[in-house]
Structure formats: C-alpha cells, structure tokens
Amino acid sequence: xxxxxxxxxxSVANQIAAGEVIQRPASAVKELMExxxxxxxTSISLVIKDAGKTLIQVNDNGVGMSETDARLSFExxxxxxxxxxxxxxxxxxxxxRGEALASIAAIAQVELKTKKEGQELGTKIxxxxxxxxxxxxxxxxxxxxxxxxxxxxxxxARRNFLKSNAIEIKHIIEEFQRVALxxxxxxxxxxxAGNEVFNLKKGSFRQRIVGIFGDKYNQRLVxxxxxxxxxxxxxxxxxxxxxxxxxxxxxxxxNNRFIKSPYLNHAVQSAFDQLLSGDQFPSYYLKLTIDPKTxxxxxxxxxxxxxxxxERAIYAIxxxxxxxxLGKNNIAPTLxxxxxxxxxxxxxxxxxxxxxxTIKVNPDYNPFKTESKPAAAPKKQSAQNWGNLxxxxxxxxxxxxxxxxxxxxxQVIASNWEDDQEEQEQTLLQLHNKYILTQLKSGFxxxxxxxxxxxxxxxxxxxxxxxxxxxxxxxxxxxxxELTHADAAxxxxxxxxxxxxxxxxxxxxxxxxxxxxxxxxxxNQQVKKSIELLLEQxxxxxxxxxxxxxxxxxxxxxxxxxxKSGKKLGYEEMKVLVDKLFACExxxxxxxxxxxxxxxxxxxxxxxxxx
Length: 611
Prior knowledge:
Number of strands: 22
Oligomer: single chain
Distance between the termini: 70 Å
Mean pLDDT: 81
Largest sheet: 8 strands, mixed
CATH architecture of the largest domain: 2-Layer Sandwich
Structural class: alpha+beta
Shape: globular
Strand order of the largest sheet: 5-4-3-6-2-1-7-8
C-alpha cells in the first residue's frame, strides 16, 4: 500500500499558518506596527486603501535591516527575539515567533524597503505568495517601509468572508488605537484613502488618551496607581457618570501588550459596585507591569490572551486599586442633609476685597404713630340658629360614602355574570410589564412585547431601506453629536442608509455630525445615545449574525427604538401591538431566530391539574 502522509509545500504551509495569524486586514496592521515598535521607531505612519484590501503600508524610522536580515525576515520561524525555549518566559518584545511576515507574504503581494543607519543603500524585496520576485538595492531614509497589496488575492474564499469596508476600517482603527495608546512616547499617524484620521504626537499616557478619544475625556479620567511586589498598575478609569450601555473603551495592557481578560474585566466592574447599574459599563485604560517569568503569552496565535501565574492576587489588587482611586477622588456622590444651607458660602479669592455691610434707616418711621382711621373690628358671629348647620348632615354623609365606593366594586356588583358577551371579546393581559397574554380556543398565547415591537419595526425599517426613504421627525433645535474615530468612520460609510431610516443629519468636521431630525419612534430619546446604540448594535449584528447590511441596520434600529421590557401598556396599546405583529410577513420570530410568541396548549395545562 502506498504511503499517504506527505510533507506540505512551504507555500501551502504558510497559507495555513496565515489563517491563524492574519484573519483580516486589521491583523496585518497589528503585526506590522508591532514590528516597527520592536525596531525602535520613534515615528510610525499607517496608510490604508479600500479598508486594507488594496493597500496596507506601514512606515517607520527604526533601525532598519541589512540585506541578509531583510531576506530572512520572510522565512517561517526566523526571529531575533528568542534562541532557546526558556526565552519564551522572558519576553520583552511584541513579536517573537517569526510568523507574521511569512504569513502575510503567503497571502499578499508584499514590498519591503529597508535601510540601516550609516548605509549608503538599502534593500528592496518584492514577494508574491511566498515567492521572491525581486531583490535589489534601493535608496531611502533610515528605517523600513512595508507595503501589503491585494490581501488574500490568492485565497479568494478568505477574501469573500471579509466584512464591509466600514466594519473592516473599524477593526483597523481599533488595532491602531491599541498599539498607539500604550506607546505614548512614539509619534503615530494614520491615513485612510488619503484622509488623515490620526496625528498623534508623543506625550504622557493621559495626553495620548485625550488625543485618540477627544478633549472631552480629559475631565472624565480618574488616575489609578498602585505598586506591589507582584504587579504595578498605572492608568485611568472614567467617572461613573460617563459609563456606557455597551462595552466600549476597555483596555488592559500587560508589559505594554494589549490583552483581553474577562476575569480581570470583572475586577474593574466590581470596583464600581453601588456606583453603576447592572447594564452600565465603565471605561478604563490600565497598564500592568509584571515579571515576564510569571506570565505565558504564547497561548494564542494573536497573543491577545495571557496566562498568569497568580491570577487571583492580580484580580484583588486591580479591584482594590480602582476602588481606592474612586475613593480618593471623591467620586461617590454625597448629600449632607444636616448642614445648614446658609453655610454654603463660596470661598473668597485672594484678589477679592471685603466690603463692610451697610444698614439703611428710614428717618420718617415712627412706631407710635397710628392710622387716622382705625381698622374695623371683626363682626361677632351670631350664636343663634346654630342647629341649622346640622340639618343636612346625614344627607351629605350618605352622598360622600356613595362617591367614595371603589369603581371596581360598583362594576362587580352591577355586572351580569350570566352574560357571555365578554367571552366573545378578545382578552389581553400584561404579565410583569413584559409579556402579553391572550386566550385561544386551544389554549393561550404569550407575546414578548419588546420582541414583538422589534419585529414590527424591523419590517418597517427594512422597507424604508429598500425604498431609500423614511419618515423624519424634525427636531426643534438641531443637535451636534461627536463620535469616536471608529464610529465616525462607520457612520460616514453608512450615511445614506441611516438617512433612509429616518435620520436627517450631515457630517460636520472630522468626527462630528449635526442632527436635524430623527425617526418618529426616537423622538423622546436622547439623540446621541440613540445613534451610539444603533452603531453598536449594527457592529454586533455584522460580527455575530452575519446579516446582510440592510437587514443588520434595520434590526439594529428596531432594537434601539422598540419599547422595552418593564413598560406598562394600556389595553389599546396591547391590542394595536398584537394586531400589527400578526400583520407582519414573519410574525413568529426575529431575524436572529429568537421567538416573538409561544403557544401553550390547553391539554398540556389540564394535565398539570389531573387528579
């Protein structure tokens, strides 16, 4: 029998490895920027076109590479970071496995230009699908420039699985922010399709946060600092009043490397106990410095997960340090009901002058002077005929008692229980301000009021998107909404569709939009919160449900505008809701498959009470 196991060609092996390391354009951005940091760069620029599908270019002024190193850098597991297995537990750099450049070169057309300090000429290498096409000397400044063109050009199935440009740009911006945040001592810039997105100058960690997320964040930050033998913590959390309804700006950095850790995230969340409700999430930017020997960063291909030697102790330290920071800055609101309000006098400034109080006196005032006409004395009430006051007492008391009888009790007494008229009418009941119950011949129906309204709105918004026009409720005063860089890029990409949903808005500046009108269903909601929830829900739908863009937007809008569980509905409101639900094309479930109604059979109910 012939042998069946064979060694894969290097090009195929590299493509398989690339599937683990390079999942989307943002993955290539992360690897190239981290390589630039490891090269000692003090200035890094990122240029992308077509959401990174056509071009990703990273330029740095680092140490550069020699001709031999430039060629070897594209080989698998070629690295200058480690030499033996023990080095894996003493890592101080971003990359160390030598997989990134080999993986990128296997699925793209890559051009590298690099030059070391002191050399007259540098090296230019062109690679397509792991095959070196060209290598020659070139001119240029110190450092390296990587140009990744036509990502996944030779793996069309992977390219087809990429999301819309808006989603891919969002992921690229997120990776850029994660790298730029923790390296405040490096200048960073980013350009998307020729437009400047970021231009960050080196400074403090606080200045870098403000530079990325906006000047308004400067007043929101609460400093956190703690030094222990196990870990050192430095960074910021936001004040409770600026908490969000979705998990947004939450950053953990371990030894200047961004990580994801639900366990440590819970430590920060628990530190905000009694300051936030269960559906609110604080933002935080925390840098942890820890001995590399006590962590393992080689447990995930993208190195975003870390294994700690003593995770419980780190949890306790983070929770305590955040609690102390909130306490030191008097974040918890207090009211002193015992203090006399007249004591609340503002403090004087050093430049203020003290003025003596003045007294005004009326020289013509005479306390012994009486009026020329004395006031008439009140007339005495006659004590005669006092009994007439009680002549209608019993009659009035009887009338009062009749009026004070509960309306429900009167109806019960007057109702005719033998009459079956009510049985012919549809009966609707609201249960726990969440479900609507209605009777059927074979049992009863339970409707989830929020999901039912979502289904109704989804079909309405989807039709508006297909027609390209929705109804608008004009605002009395236009509102300006400022978004993060990622959300602003997403909003710009979806602007025509969002207008079709019923928003009347226009771009105003780099990350700002002026809103003149909103869909009628959102007229009583905060404009900024509605837009943020819409964008956040759209991103979730794109990532988790793999919905088409119009479906994703319509569902996100329906979720944002629907009535919520806990809202008490009147009988007419319930009736209209149920009638509209059954008028839908698909009334029984949401686009994500979750049911809007369930039916309970009367026979099944009877079995529960059998003798």
